[in-house]
Model the fold of this input.
Amino acid sequence: MTDQTAMMEDDRPVGQALRRGWRCRCPNCGKGAMLQGYLTVRDSCPSCHEELSHHRADDGPAYLTILIVGHLLAPLILWAFVTYRPEPLVLASIFSLGTVALSLFLLPRMKCMVVAMQWSRRMHGFANRD
Done:
């Protein structure tokens, strides 16, 4: 590991950036809101003016959301079915609502975490900051 690599890793810690991303805050300062709407990333942080327009989140947040929601709710559906034997329509209604609610909760957080990871690892133009 070179000195420059070690300096880059200490400069933008991944854990801290991901925690700030989970809270939908700027990965640099942790104060400014990263999102301008539900899923629109701001061009720059309103607090520290860190440029955020370089991100390439694309489909990653949606895939992560599907992965997490599926892994959380699939065992719960099986447990509820085996334990309580509800009517199929009741089971489908309850877990459909839970799936949509959990997905809507996680999607913006996953997007902010993907942007924060890119910022932390200096991907897609985030490396050009002085």
Notes: The mean pLDDT is 92. The two ends are 22 Å apart (CA to CA). The helical segments are 3-11, 14-22, 60-84, 88-120.
